[in-house]
Amino acid sequence: MPRLHRREFLKNLALVLAVRGLHAQPLPPRQIVPGVWFLEGDASKGYCNNILIEMRDYLVLVDANYPGRAHELLQIIPTISRKPLRWVFDTHAHRDHAYGNSVWTHAGATTLAYKSVVDEMNRWEPERWRATAAIRPDVRATGEQDVQRPEAVFDGPRFTLNDPGADGRVIEFLFLGWAHTPGDGFVWLPKERVLCTGDAAVNGPRNKLFDAWITNWPRVLDRALALQPLHVLPGHGSSGGAEILTGQRDFLLNLMRGVKAQAMQGLKPDQMHIHMKGPAANWVPTNPTSWRQDIETAALEIESGKPAGANPHVWK
Q1: What CA dihedral angle connects 67, 69, 71 and 73, to 10 degrees?
Q2: Which of 1, 130, 150, 297 gives a 20 to 30 Å CA spacing to 30?
Q3: Is residue 281 very low, low, confident or very high in pLDDT (cuts 50, 70, 90)?
Q4: CA–CA distance, 280 with 243 (Å, rounded to integer)
């Protein structure tokens, strides 16, 4: 067999690694505290993160995800715990967090959300579902024409699940206000000080602002910070601590300040250039089109005097 020259060998090795990268396996479940696992979603497939929480007699899953990931999780979860999955919580109405609802209800779980999640679905669906089915085989394969609404909803600031006994686990499902969407729900474990944020806080340049109330969003994050979480598990990106909340908040504050200042100078959104410094820069989209969309959405909110998401708009 002929020997490869060093340059040719390195070239072939790089090709092999690149091919492997295309088929890289998702990160394995990571236990954050005893009985709480962080399952990071494959961003290349559009998947969000999931969090699995173990109660005494059953399991709770944060976010339904897309149907494709839901089917994957049906195989993964029994390798983590053999307890039955009782609840699946939609942190908000967006497709990558809720379109797997019917997969979970068919498997025997009950889907749960804050009441405004259903309101948002009734506002935007089934148009968004149909547009997504046209480009995603896993949504199309359900054979459904609309997203399944959560089977149970709560109204008010809090819904709580408790294990029996003083040492039992407590899960609080919280509504802290309109942020990323009008229905954003947080999942808070007060004893362990673990906070699951959905897309009210993501880690890195993974925001979509179309349905947001950008001005109110930092106030919501301040309420989340007041809980003093030790572990923050975002809807996208890696897990961490409170720096995820402060980074997301400061990005939004700087975006609104910058757009407002340049609007007062008479600049239109397509003329604006917003520069972020410090940790907040980590949330700036790397795609220029996405960054332009963020600036335009912020300008729309400022000009209209109402939440960006309350204005007529099309998801892009």
Answers
A1: -140
A2: 150
A3: very high
A4: 10
Q: What DSSP line would sit under 181-243, residue for residue? A: STT--EEEETTTTEEEEETTS-SSS----TT--TTTHHHHHHHHHTT--SEEEESSS--BSTH
> Is the separation of the CB atoms in 274 and 255 below 8 Å?
yes
Residue matched to tokens 């109660």: 55
Strand partners, 241: none
The count of other CB atoms within 10 Å of the CB of residue 194 is 22
pLDDT exceeds 60 at position 13: no
H or E stretch covering 116: helix 115-124
Element (H, E) at 110: strand 110-114
pLDDT at 66 over 50: yes
Read off the pTM.
0.91
Separation of CA 6 from chain center: 44
Name the residue among 53, 156, 66 with its Cα closest to residue 102: 66
Q: How far apart are CA 286 and CA 276, in angstroms?
A: 12
pLDDT score of 25: 55
Alpha carbon of residue 176 to chain centroid: 16
> What's 314's DSSP letter?
-
Look up tokens 């975006």; give the residue: 255
Place of tokens 């990931």: 69
Q: How many CA atoms lie within 13 A of 61 on its CB side?
A: 35
Confidence band, pLDDT 50/70/90 cuts, at residue 42: very high
User: What is d(CA 157, CA 177) in angstroms, rounded to the nearest whole number?
Assistant: 9
Q: Determine the pLDDT at residue 316.
A: 79
Higher pLDDT: 85 or 5? It is 85
DSSP codes, 17-65: HHHHHHTPPPPPPEEEETTEEEE---GGGT---EEEEE-SS-EEEE---
**Domains of the chain in sequence order:** 26-240 (3.60.15.10)
